[in-house]
Amino acid sequence: MSRSIDLAVIPGDGIGQEVVAQGLKVLNAVLPQDVKLETKEYDLGAQRWHRTGDTLPDAELEALKNHDAILLGAIGDPSVPSGVLERGLLLKLRFAFDHFINLRPSKLFPNTATPLAGRPDIDFVVVREGTEGPYTGNGGSLRTGTPAEVATEVSVNTAYGVERVVRDAFERAAARPRKKLTLVHKNNVLVYAGHLWKNTFDKVAAEYPQVSTDYLHVDAATIFFVTQPERFDVIVTDNLFGDILTDLAAAVTGGIGLAASGNINPTGAFPSMFEPVHGSAPDIAGQGKADPTATVLSVALLLRHLGYEAEAVRIEDAVSADLAERDGAATRTTDEIGDALAVRV
Amino acid sequence: MSRSIDLAVIPGDGIGQEVVAQGLKVLNAVLPQDVKLETKEYDLGAQRWHRTGDTLPDAELEALKNHDAILLGAIGDPSVPSGVLERGLLLKLRFAFDHFINLRPSKLFPNTATPLAGRPDIDFVVVREGTEGPYTGNGGSLRTGTPAEVATEVSVNTAYGVERVVRDAFERAAARPRKKLTLVHKNNVLVYAGHLWKNTFDKVAAEYPQVSTDYLHVDAATIFFVTQPERFDVIVTDNLFGDILTDLAAAVTGGIGLAASGNINPTGAFPSMFEPVHGSAPDIAGQGKADPTATVLSVALLLRHLGYEAEAVRIEDAVSADLAERDGAATRTTDEIGDALAVRV
Ligand SMILES: CC(C)[C@H](C(=O)O)[C@@H](O)C(=O)O
Ligand SMILES: CC(C)[C@H](C(=O)O)[C@@H](O)C(=O)O
Fold first, then answer.
1. Count: domains in chain A
2. Which entry of B54, B247, B335, B339 is annotated as an active-site residue?
3. A25 shares its domain with A124
4. Binding residue per annotation — A290?
5. Which residues does the annotation list for site: Important for catalysis (chains A, B) (predicted)?
6. Cα separation of B306 and B295, whole Å?
7. DSSP class of A83
8. What are A68-103's pLDDT values in tens digits?
9. Fewer CB near the terminus (10 Å): N or C of chain A?
10. Are residue B221 and residue B147 in the same domain, yes or no?
11. Is B94 annotated as a binding residue?
């Protein structure tokens, strides 16, 4: 294992700056003395776009390639037309660096508010495909803005793309105590993509007899997310369904203030990128109100990815302990939460 | 208003037969003496397909056109490959009869179990587009079954199709006390379809200054469904997002045993079709365990559509009263629930 980490940091928009600062604080606190951490900040996001019109120039994309990993805060601002930064920056990174595993763990921590009655025991991980589906940018609009407009969106799914994420999900399921994998799709309507997913899933399943499997349509899956979330262990699903399900998962496990994610390229060909699931929350930006926990947990995923398993666990334990002692009534600032976690690790 | 109803009945598969029988029982009980009800049953679904290979032959499609409305139970069986009956029968009807309004009300009735803590006050209606989006069957598979397979699904959205459903939703919102309409889409990623939806929405909104509007991405919408469902009044959304959101809505309002729907063609050019949101539930079929309430509430939507508003309200009130007095502990059979509702109306 290399004893240095060369990290690219993209704070981005809104609360991005604040939460990333806390993520770095905890990262610095948890790393052993002998690990040299280098960080380089990239000025990308809404302000940059307003100033220069750039979302992600080629030179910066090239430079980003040379880091060991990327920590990203949040992207998006109401002053920028919807889609410009999402497609021109965030998704461009996920696609350019072939982040085919979008890893999103969901866990209901002790002492955390959930909108669900009866506090089910939730601990699952969604393996969301990250480079295909309706996210490919295929599609277009004909006769735009006229009463005869036709707008299309094309979901592209390849055996290559589906098999690699399904295999990854089986590996993750096999490594967990419950060893259960659920495929979520909508193969009764989206029959072409759905059958490719289902057939690939069934084929790979034969190689993992120790993993129990099931299949749910995405609509039915949302029902179980609120009525029986404890039934899930690992879920593998397409890019769009994964987007929807992981926001719902975050909501039932105490909110997107706690939801971490990793955009991972397991081959190591490109740097993986870690980011909280939440957005830039411009309404509370700069006020010290943002909960940096999701970013701190994303740093744990980053460390695990780079081989620092013990340090990742220390962060996760610190978050558990912090939440367990968190007093529901007291509101702490972004900085105070970061400090508390840095002290614990 | 015509004082006769010529109803096509498609019981379909699994619990379809049982719940439709209760729907008809309540329909018979609620209708004034002078309204002549004629019903004709169509044998369509899994058994028919196994026997003849037919899903919906042209002759039956033609015959169905001549009815005033259609009552459908449920379609689907594990013995039939996924997609065959959904696409060949259910969606074929929705598309052939141009059911562009898929109306799905969600209400948390008194004394009904919800998985949400704190029992929020839920009363909204989803206006789901029914004839476009990723449901059009456009798409295909190249090199099927090989490692080089590419499978696509095309979401088709037209100004024509989007505007008519958006207008309908504004009309419905304007007629409700809170007068609030939320557009749900994912226009930061699905930019072509998303911008068509958003631009159409904004254009029509200008004609309804009395309706307050907002926009949510579909992922964020799922969060509010569980954390703040009381914020919604009317929601308008695309076919696939509507499918997902209405199952989630059913779950938070006490389960799909209570979720009704109408596949409506408001022009009257073709018969509209009413069905519970739930599926055929083959695991409990034939055991008298199915809750027919969703079908009975679908009959109320049917009556409203045909102009029998007073009768529709009587059914809805009967369901409210029945649920209010329902004893959580006692399990009633499908038939008993139907009887109780028939007596009340
Ligand atoms: C911002 C948006 C493009 C993004 C997505 O849809 O993937 C976000 O919702 C997420 O889940 O990371
Ligand atoms: C059975 C299936 C084709 C259908 C749909 O996806 O529309 C169902 O889920 C529904 O919501 O009515």
1. 2
2. B247
3. no
4. yes
5. 135, 186
6. 16
7. T
8. 999 999 999 999 999 999 999 999 999 999 999 999
9. N
10. yes
11. yes
